[in-house]
UniProtKB/TrEMBL annotation:
The chain crosses the membrane at residues 700-719. It comes from the Bacteria. This is DUF6049 family protein. InterPro entries: DUF6049 (IPR046112), Ig-like_fold (IPR013783), TonB_box_CS (IPR010916). It comes from Streptomyces iakyrus. Residues 758-774 have a biased composition (Basic and acidic residues). Residues 1-46 form the signal peptide. Residues 493-503 have a biased composition (Low complexity).
Amino acid sequence: MAEAADFQGTSASPARRWLRRTGALLAGAPLLAGLLQLPAATPADAAGQESPQVASSAGSVSVAVDSLTPSAPSEGDTVTVSGTVTNNGKQTVTGAHVDLQVGPPLETRSAIDTLAKKSDDLQGPSGEKVGGKYTEKFPALTPGVAEPFSISVPADKLDLGDDGVYQLAVALSGKTSAQPWEQVLGIQRTFLPWQPEEAGTKTKTTFLWPLISSAHMAAETGSNEQQTPVFRDDELAEEIAPGGRLDQMVSLGKGLDVTWVVDPDLLASVDAMTGSYQVRTADGSTTPGKNQEIAKHWLAELQQAVTGEEVAALPFGDPDLASLAHNGTNVTGSLNHLKEATDAADKTVGTILHVKPSTDFVWPVDGAVDPSIVKVATSAGADKVITRSDSLQDNLSYTPSAARPIGGGTTAVVADSRMSTAFQGDLTRASASTLAVQRFLAQSLTLGLQTGKQRSVVVAPQRMPSVSQAQAMAEALAALQGGNWSESQDLTAAAKAKPDPAANTKVPPASAYPRSLSKQELPREAFEQIAETQRKLDKFKVILTRQSRVVTPFGRAMNREMSTSWRGRGVAAVGYRDGIESYLNGLIDGVKLIQKSETKLSGRSAMIPVTVQNNLVQGVERLKLRLTSQNPTRLKIGGDAYEEQPVTVNGGHAQSVKFTTSANANGQAKVVAQLYTEDGQRYGAPVAFDVRVTEVTPTVMLVIGGGVLLLVLAGFRMYTQRKRAAAREAAEDDTAEAGDDTDGAQSQVDAPQNPETSDARLEQETEAESRADGPEQPSDPAPDTAAESADPSGTGERVDR
């Protein structure tokens, strides 16, 4: 990217430098001519020279600048440079001393980049030595020993001229026994921004402060009424604990003027930790979570930090827009998940942080875009895409403002790539952190000096800064906000700023998308698996009486399956998706048919029970159970080949459904039981079992008829015997009446009955009645209804008639 070679208002200092350099060349010409006529100088001769030379053992001493305060000095300030020097060679360095050297201003942003890449190169420019008392001496530097140094010098002694970024080098010179002459053995260059007075036109700077983490929750919840959340690990507690990464992001960002960019999933996860929760252990079991107080403290600190500041909410789970655009748009339902994630963002952030977030922004990975990414990014309703200047490049001699229209009512907010990447890499060493801070400030000031027009610049750092990176970011931003050339601006204002008419508004083609980023994308198979999980969920939820207990946690889990945090973690991403689908399969299998063994059916009709088991906590409904006969000519179900009945089962219970059957012939018939949803979709696995039919035959009917005939004959015999007995009694009564002259009819009525005669008659009547009822015959059918049970049917199970 081309940049301006000169700055406005910086002509005086280059002129002075030109005159100084020309004079030095003229004065040194005779000396140079004389030197050409002399033999090469020996080391002894070189030792007497005043100017240090670059030794053959260059770089044998490392110089680390651990701090530079103030980072951007003003007039009247005292600049203090502290650090360490370490002798990495094998010989002791004698006569060592550390000096500060101030070089000329760096006039372009690319010059800053070049110097940063060669910050410890002895062959590069070093500038003029401050000298005098502003040096630190060491009698000797022992090999392998680090010695601290600290040099303080008033800013007016640095001979700084016009506003700009100056090279500040810390050089160590000394001697060794093998090379006993003065030489530079180590150097470290950094940058010194110089803007002592308020700039007439300040750059408006927007710094994004990201609160994003990886996925720590899946879809699993407890079976209790509160649905206790289950965490995959306890790593989130470590991040929000005092000193943790997210704890530092909140505590450092609290005093800065930044735009908070938040993943709602992080907030939802920490909020879940404030109550009762479980943590999955390595052996698959769960243990109660114990970090409720840490979670409450972190949320309270965050709520305080964002008060009065802008909060931009990313879609729930921070979905990978590039992966979705390149590999997921052809998979049914993928874009719906992005819309759901966007809708969930506003409610989640508003409920937990008590602020109204902006949901107009999306942030592709590293700000890299192409037409398909922009299309997907705006499909869920967002109309502002945070991109980066190394993706949407400009061919200008200056850096234009961040906002620019890219068509279709969409605004690209182009973050500055140099400033956005300034804090990447390992910044655990103080020297690395200091260099990053000074480089960031140098880029910011140089950008501001390019033109006399006010511009808006956006800084979008890495999504999940480490603790050391966050500390460097906070230090640089504090210096910037306390400086004289920049003022803070929130993201919404930056997006609304007037675009530069010369800025590039053409989105780069797909071929320009970085291959390094393409290799880390979620593959098409990931979106296909998510679609399959959604299909199963849609089929499962229709039978539930309380759908939200399942739909909500699984919906959020599928948002997390699309997260950018899976980049570079392909194996972990597959494991996460497999775990979600496996858990859903387990819930679906909780509603099933109980297996049945062979069933015996005797007679022309009977009732066959089929049991539906519900192992879920909640009840299920809107299910139909269909029982189908595979041989309807032999066995009919409900008068046809099959019969359906509605099914409703309470949570943790089983329900037995009975079907009427009719047999037409002897033999074995296969029967299949299958659950269906209301829309006719199969649910669960079918249960097939055999029904052995034993039909009533003519022989059996003949035997039964003979038995009935015998009962009739026995009854007729008893009837005739009883009639004959009555006739004999009547004859005896007549004889007694004729022989009795005195008693007459009255004596016959009052006479008591003979007890023996009465008992005999009663016994005869009882016997006759017993014979009329008849004894139980071996051919009489016995009840064959088994007790209903949710257990599998035993061998030879009989059915309800």
